[in-house]
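note to self: dont lose this again. the chain is below, predicted strucutre after it. 51 aa total, dont forget to put it in the shared folder this time
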Amino acid sequence: MRIEVRNTCRRRYRVKIIIAFGPDSSCWTYKPGQRRDYYGWSGRVDQLRLC
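---
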């Protein structure tokens, strides 16, 4: 499973991807305009949570 997270806001955020039926991501810092892919086990994205 591949999940793309992109920060389209004007400020920096620390976020964590919460996965149902699988391991959650670590907390990552995203600068404005930054994009990152998360590769994990199969599951379902429940939410994107601030850290």
